[in-house]
Specification:
Layout lengths: L2 E3 L17 H11 L8 E3 L5 H4 L5 H9 L4 H7 L5 H24 L1 E4 L20 H11 L6 E5 L6 H6 L6 E8 L12 E5 L5 H18 L3 E7 L15 H18 L3 E6 L7 H18 L1
Parallel strand pairs: 1-2, 1-3, 3-8, 4-5, 4-7, 5-6, 7-8
């Protein structure tokens, strides 16, 4: 069983920026300290190449990201300043998603300590997302013949507009998004199934909504589930507007992993969201996802 992490330094962001770039290093430290993923299970994510990224993104956009010639309005939409570190990080995130998806098909469970960049579209990035890791991973599995059908279950609190846009014309990929009704993005692209949740939704209502969604995956009969286990539904999240507790998030993850276990469905994890105050609350929730994954499927 193998898991991946971007072996890249924290992205440089201006003081007071609302993106908590240090959270990934904090997660790696917590996973190591509590032996949630023993060192032998963790590998550095390989960087995605230009050919990989072309499966989901236009050549002009990829080249502009690589050489730092992005138009100012695209940089504003991404919400992160361009840097060589941002490029390395973004390529490693996509490469980690590809590696984790391949590994999950072999062992039943994999994932990376990053990912969930579901706001990136074919020609532009958005919402702190540069390249779309799950769209590239899904299209890669199909192109390589490793899977005939791929399901994406997106439980980030923000609707996965980039996933929906890039994969709209790909019938071999099922995109499900369970998210806050009155949250970013405000111009949405319809997924195969979108579930809007009102502000203040708590544990019980959220878990009921998720339980109602899972049979849709049964009907699709995928070969693998790409699971975006966003932690921004957490009550403490500054950008979330939902009301889940840590126990509720843990039960959510357990529900997904037990569903996969019962059906023998391989699952690859991407973390998403995470803007709690303090950010250690998001990091704790990230770590719990991997802890529960190993309890149920390890």
């Amino acid at each position: 069983m193998r898991f991946f992490y971007p072996d890249v330094e924290a992205m440089p962001v201006p003081a007071g920026h609302r993106f908590p770039a240090a959270k990934y290093q904090m997660l790696r430290a917590l996973v190591d300290a509590e032996a949630i993923l023993p060192p032998g299970m963790l590998e550095a994510s390989p960087p995605a190449g230009r050919t990989d990224l072309l499966r989901a993104h236009s050549a002009a956009y990829i080249d502009a990201v690589f050489d730092g010639s992005l138009a100012p309005d695209i940089v504003r939409r991404i919400g992160l300043p361009w840097s060589a570190t941002l490029v390395r990080r973004s390529r490693a995130t996509v490469g980690g998603a590809m590696a984790a998806a391949r590994s999950a098909l072999e062992t039943g469970l994999s994932g990376q300590l990053a990912g969930g960049t579901h706001h990136a579209h074919r020609d532009f990035g958005s919402g702190f997302c540069v390249f779309n890791d799950l769209a590239v991973a899904a299209l890669t599995l199909l192109e390589e013949g490793r899977a005939e059908r791929v399901a994406i279950l997106d439980l980030d609190v923000h609707q996965g507009d980039g996933n929906a846009a890039i994969l709209a014309d790909e019938p071999r990929v099922l995109v499900i998004s369970l998210h806050g009704a009155k949250n970013f993005p405000f111009r949405r692209v319809a997924s195969d199934l979108d579930v809007d949740l009102p502000d203040g939704t708590g544990d019980r209502a959220y878990l009921h909504a998720l339980a109602d969604v899972l049979p849709v995956i049964d009907d699709f009969r995928p070969d693998i589930l790409l699971y975006l286990s966003g932690v921004d539904p957490l009550k403490q999240d500054r950008l979330g507007r939902l009301d889940l507790t840590h126990d509720g998030l843990s039960e959510r993850d357990r529900l997904v992993f037990e569903y996969c276990r019962r059906r023998g469905l391989p699952v690859s994890i991407a973390i998403g969201g995470g803007y709690a105050d303090p950010i250690s609350e998001s990091v704790r929730a990230y770590a719990n996802t991997f802890r529960i994954a190993r309890e149920v499927l390890g």
